[in-house]
Design brief:
Layout (H helix, E strand, L loop, with lengths): L2 H20 L5 E5 L2 E6 L2 E3 L1 E5 L8 H5 L2 H6 L4 E7 H4 L9 H12 L3 E11 L8 H4 L7 E3 L5 E5 L4 H22 L5 E8 L12 H8 L4 H9 L6 H9 L8 H5 L3 H26 L4 E6 L20 H7 L5 E6 L4 H7 L11 E2 L2 H15 L3 E2 L12 H20 L5 E7 L4 E6 L2 E7 L2 E2 L15 E2 L3 E10 L2 E7 L1 E7 L6 E13 L2 E7 L11 H5 L8 E3 L5 E10 L1
Parallel strand pairs: 4-5, 4-13, 5-6, 6-9, 9-10, 10-11, 11-12
Antiparallel strand pairs: 1-2, 2-3, 7-8, 14-19, 15-16, 16-21, 17-18, 19-20, 20-25, 21-24, 22-23, 22-25
Helix pairs in contact: 7-12, 9-13, 12-13, 14-15, 15-16
Length: 562
């Protein structure tokens, strides 16, 4: 080889290697201190998302008019179904035309996508599997109920079903890597949807009966023993009551009852799904999650599909499905705070893939992201004609502005949030060396409805709901976003110091930083003029008022005086 050719070869090699080095890593989850970030294009990303209805994305034409509406809602991410039946209508023949069109349309509207792989199961049943699968129950067996009836649910004990779903999933992931690996429009994939069996029961097929009577797999027992200190409270309780045995049948180890059926089916659903994703994950390892239906009856086993990644079964899923990155609750019922606490156990990242919209969704978006470090929030049915509410749009716009600061402060104890209602009208937040005393805003009733013979307390009314997210940006400075609350500041100690409001500004954040609006003082910060009584408590009567008519974003400086 002559010197000129050698030199050219070395230059091309250097350029190729340099180019490869500058390519962003695939979307992934990354632990940073106490926080877990979703990383897209090598930068932390907060998914302000919404999920479209189940059938919307089955037609590119149907979605054409929806994309601009979604972008105008200040979403940055859309959850859309991709069905096995449309991707592989005939066995071995894959059609990516629809998927490519949806990805292209999302790009045109500057939106990321989370794909919902609706394949073997969707809401327990198997209606999204191709007809060539569903029409052949001998090749692809069905789950069996206690009475011996075959259910319209493909069995988690079906090796042929797992293999077929896995081949299709691998084809999907290979295609995503080829068409989207550099642009990263698709940032996560949900695998199946709300898997499980109804009525608090397990599969009673011959294979299932044999497995249930046999020993708990050694692989699972080893995992539980090795991670004993990290297990969820729910699993610890069930295992302890049954005697904390480390071998035996399922009922020997976990007792007789619904909880054991939950754990048994969780193991087999998780093993099935891990087998489905293994090949595809190796080809393109972007984050994968499995979602769980959590039922109308808060905490009551049997009101949920049996086998999904419930808090009781989360560790079983972690043991059986190591290729799944997280387990995510579809939160429609019960206490949002309780579910967030349950789904942040055992190092599980928090993502809310389905929930209510409207004013409740607006409040819970701030709560889950601000108080529990959620990597994203996604109300369902975001494409409906009356969805989302203007209130949710306002909250998403505010979160869009605050995203860089939220991502910078997560996990260091400098960010929190609260949602209040008339049953729980107050809450204290410890932040930045201060106590923020948050209460529903006291609003004076109109003169027409005030009974002058009653006390002044009877002359005020409380909104149905209030919410706030607070960031301690730096010492003695807070960023406050919320609605329908009032906030006073006190010192977190026995010190006699009085907290004074310094500069209080309305405003917005732009790419250049804080853009100040009104400077608030006087009537806008005086909550009470009972000054002598307040002075005796080291208080001043001042505070923040976030009205019920609109979301307010404030930057607040405070100081202490003795």
């Amino acid at each position: 080889m002559n010197s000129r050719v050698l030199c050219a070869t070395l230059v091309l090699t250097f350029v190729a290697r340099s180019g490869a080095a500058t390519l962003p890593s695939a979307p992934h989850l990354e632990k940073r201190g106490n926080a877990i970030d979703l990383v897209v294009h090598d930068q932390p990303f907060l998914a302000l998302a919404g999920e479209v209805h189940n059938s919307s994305s089955s037609s590119r034409e149907y979605m054409r008019g929806i994309w601009p509406r979604l972008a105008a809602m200040h979403l940055n991410t859309v959850l859309i179904p991709v069905s096995w039946e449309q991707l592989e209508p005939k066995e071995g023949q894959f059609d990516f035309t629809l998927l490519d069109g949806l990805i292209d349309d999302a790009r045109q509207n500057n939106l990321h996508l989370v794909l919902l792989w609706l394949a073997t199961w969707k809401n327990m049943v198997s209606s999204y599997a191709p007809e060539w699968v569903r029409s052949d129950p001998h090749r692809f067996p069905l789950a069996v109920d206690k009475s011996g009836n075959r259910l319209p649910i493909l069995s988690s004990f079906s090796a042929t079903g797992q293999e077929a779903d896995g081949r299709a999933f691998a084809a999907l992931m290979k295609h995503l890597r080829q068409v989207d690996g550099g642009k990263q429009t698709v940032i996560m994939v949900q695998v199946e949807n709300e898997v499980g069996l109804p009525d608090g029961e397990r599969d009673y097929s011959d294979l299932a009966n044999e497995a249930y009577a046999g020993p708990v797999p050694a692989e699972l027992m080893d995992y539980l023993v090795q991670h004993r200190d990290e297990l969820t409270d729910q699993l610890k309780a069930v295992w302890s009551v049954a005697g904390s045995k480390t071998s035996g049948s399922w009922e020997d180890v976990f007792g007789v009852g619904t909880a054991t059926k939950v754990l048994f089916m969780a193991w087999h659903y998780a093993r099935y799904i891990n087998g489905v994703v293994e090949g595809g994950h190796a080809l393109y390892p972007i984050p994968l999650y499995v979602n769980a239906a959590i039922g109308r009856q808060n905490g009551l086993l049997g009101s949920y599909p049996v086998g999904g990644p419930l808090p009781l079964a989360m560790n079983v899923w972690q043991a059986a499905a190591p290729r799944i990155d997280m387990f995510s609750p579809d939160m429609y019922f019960g206490s949002v705070s309780d579910w967030c606490k349950a789904y942040t156990q055992s190092r599980n990242p928090l993502f809310i893939p389905e929930t209510k919209g409207g004013s409740i969704g607006a409040a819970n978006a701030l709560l889950t992201i601000g108080a529990y470090g959620a990597i994203g929030f996604s109300p369902f049915g975001i494409d409906a004609g009356n969805s989302p509410s203007p209130e949710l749009v306002d909250v998403y716009e505010c979160l869009r502005q605050l995203s860089p600061m939220i991502l910078a402060h997560r996990g260091d104890g400098s960010i929190s949030a609260a949602v209040l209602n008339q049953a729980n009208p107050t809450q204290s937040l410890e932040l930045g060396g201060y106590t923020l005393n948050v209460a529903l805003r006291h609003e004076r009733k109109s003169a027409e409805v005030v009974d002058l013979n009653k006390t002044s307390q009877d002359a005020v009314q409380l909104p149905d709901q209030g919410y706030v997210l607070v960031i301690a940006e730096k010492p003695d400075r807070f960023i406050v976003a919320g609605k329908g609350v009032q906030i006073t500041f006190t010192v977190n100690s026995t010190s006699p110091a009085v907290v004074e409001l310094g500069k209080v500004e309305e405003g917005t954040f732009s790419s250049e930083g804080w853009v100040a609006g009104r400077r608030l003082n006087g009537d806008e910060i005086m909550l009470s003029y009972d000054l002598s009584a307040l002075a005796a408590k080291n208080q001043t009567g001042t505070g923040l008022e976030l009205g019920s008519d609109r979301l307010t974003l404030l930057r607040v400086d405070v100081f202490r005086r003795n």
